[in-house]
Amino acid sequence: KSLQTRYTKTSSLIYSVLIVVLSAFGIYLIFNIRRILKLYRIEKQNREKTQELLMNTEDINTIKARFLQDISYKIRTPLNSVMGLSEILANNPEPEDVKSISETIQENSQELQQLVNAVLDLSRLESGMMKYNLSDYSLIQICQDAISVVRLHSDTPIPPIGFNCTVEEGR
Asked: pTM to 2 decimals?
C-alpha cells in the first residue's frame, strides 16, 4: 500500500509539473503569437504608408513635369515674340512700326522677367534659401485686386464681375 501511495503521489506530482510546464509553454506561445500579429499589423501599416508616400511622390513628380511644360511654354511664347519682333525691327526700321514693335517687345520682356523671377523664387523656397513670411492680409482686397488684374490683362472687354462680401473686414 505504501508503494502504491508513493506511486500515486509521484504520478500526481509528475502530472502537476507537466501541467505547469505545458501551461507555461502555452502562455509563451500565446505571448509570441500576439507579438507576431502585432509586428504583422505594424509591417502592414508601414507598407500602406510607404505605398501612400510613393503615390504622393509620383503625384508631385507629375505636377512638377506639368509645371515645367507650362513654364517652358509660357517662356518660349514671349521669347519667340521678342526675337521675331527684334528681327523685324532690325530689318525694317519703319518709323510708324517702331513704337508698336518696341511696346510689344517691352511687354513680352517684362512678362519673361516675371516668369523667371517666379521660377527662381520657387526654386529658393524649395531649397530652403528663402522662407515663407506669414502675414495677415485682407481677403476682400486680394479678391478685388485679382478682379482688377483680370480686367487689365484682358484683350477683350469683359462684363462686370460681381463681388459680394459677407465677411467683415478685420475678422
From this structure: 0.41
